[in-house]
Amino acid sequence: QKEVEQDPGPLSVPEGAIVSLNCTYSNSAFQYFMWYRQYSRKGPELLMYTYSSGNKEDGRFTAQVDKSSKYISLFIRDSQPSDSATYLCAMSGTGGFKTIFGAGTRLFVKA
Amino acid sequence: SAVISQKPSRDICQRGTSLTIQCQVDSQVTMMFWYRQQPGQSLTLIATANQGSEATYESGFVIDKFPISRPNLTFSTLTVSNLSPEDSSIYLCSATTGGLGEAFFGQGTRLTVV
């Protein structure tokens, strides 16, 4: 079993849709949860960062962490064609633990 | 946050040669890492670059093939040695600040071996 599971997609949605991206994990030591956006031919860009359980909102993006279920989500409201990218979930523990990445979900938002 | 500059951004190399990739961070960081990303795939950790000592390599990666240096807190290099077409990939430098787990990335180096 992989430490982090993420559906690679692709996920195709119409412009304006609400997008839900998810990851599950197995290591209960993870405390920091991140979502990265990666455009083609670019490095990953940190999008959202959450510590422990709860929600965090930033504009059209909401990150949720449910540590009891070992499940994290990223919601994108009013999706735009510019949101088309690969979204990678990532997580780590304390003390400079390695960051473990999901496989990435390719998202296409159609105009 | 940290801004990471990585160069070269791309290169085409002959098999049997080596390529050295440089990574410069604009602030002192705790940890620096090197990743490989095959087309359409996620990130595979090659090694953790340790300041002033030998890097810590992940399973499947060895120092002879991927020598790494980190002479100070803000700079690291990765060399991919004895290149073969299988080494064609994107190589990414990453750094974390403090112990909070946020990882920042450079833009990557796209290597093509011919």
Bin the helical content of chain A: under 10%
Average pLDDT score of chain A = 92
Order of helices and strands of chain B: EEEEEEEEEEE
**Major sheet description of chain A:** 6 strands, mixed
Strand percentage of chain B:
over 45%
As a percent range, the share of strand residues of chain A is: over 45%
| Interface with most residues | A-B, 27 and 25 residues
Distance between the termini of chain B: 37 Å
Structural class by helix and strand composition of chain A? mainly beta
Q: What sort of overall outline of chain B do the alpha carbons produce when their principal axes are compared?
A: globular
Radius of gyration of chain B: 13 Å
Distance between the first and last residues' Cα of chain A: 37 Å
**Quantity of strands of chain A, as a count:** 11
The total beta strand count of chain B reads 11
Low-confidence stretches of chain A: none
Total of helices of chain B = 0
